[in-house]
Amino acid sequence: MQLGSLIEDFELCDQFGQPRRLSEFLVKGPVVLFFYPAAMTRGCTAESCHFRDLGAAFTDVGAQRLGISRDDVEKQHKFSEKYHFDFPLLSDPDGKVAGIFEVKRKFAVTGVKRHTFVIGQDARLLKEIASEFSMSAHADRALGFLAAQ
Q1: Whole-structure pTM over 0.85, yes or no?
Q2: Burial bucket for residue 61 (CB in 10 Å: 0-12, 13-18, 19+)
Q3: Which helix (H) or strand (E) holds 89?
Q4: What angle do CA 85, 102, 88 make, to 5 degrees?
Q5: Spatial CA neighbour of 51 closest among 74, 80, 26, 78
Q6: For FRET with 43, which of 33, 59, 68, 71 sits at 20 to 30 Å CA-CA?
Q7: Which one, of 100, 63, 71, lies nearest residue 13 by Cα?
Q8: Is 44 a catalytic residue?
């Protein structure tokens, strides 16, 4: 996937089991879609909480945050409830959407690579952030990019 690529619309269930489409979020502004390997793990908790803690700043730049992993809806719900996330967590158990974004791992315990994508309202990829070990880099870089627009 390259910058400027058109992202195809997709539908996944959120942490409440409600089907959600990328296009419904894009109507409201750009989307920051962050893939995390596994709910309830130390690194993914730190990353997701950082996205939560920067919620007002993302609102200020008009962006929606969406977390996504291969965890099932029930685990996503427990993760969201435990840490009081104010954004949807999408469940991609078969890795279909991870495949679209080319972050699906072939041989690993965790199903996806830690990547963040900033998607413009026109459904085009504006920015990609990849860092397996810097848990705050994803939210910070996405926010910095959007604030500079």
Answers
A1: yes
A2: middle
A3: strand 89-91
A4: 15
A5: 80
A6: 59
A7: 71
A8: yes
Alpha helix positions (H), 70-121? 73-83, 96-100
Q: How far apart (Å, rounded) are the C-alpha atoms in residues 83 and 81?
A: 6
Q: Which tokens in the block code for residue 16?
A: 């409440």
99 torsion bin: left (phi>0), alpha (psi -120 to 50), beta (else): alpha
Per-residue pLDDT of 15-72, as tens digits, reads 999 999 999 999 999 999 999 999 999 999 999 999 999 999 999 999 999 999 999 9
Q: Which of 22, 32, 44, 66 is catalytic?
A: 44
Kindly state the tokens that stand for 10: 């997709």
Report residue 49 as tokens.
Answer: 């909480």
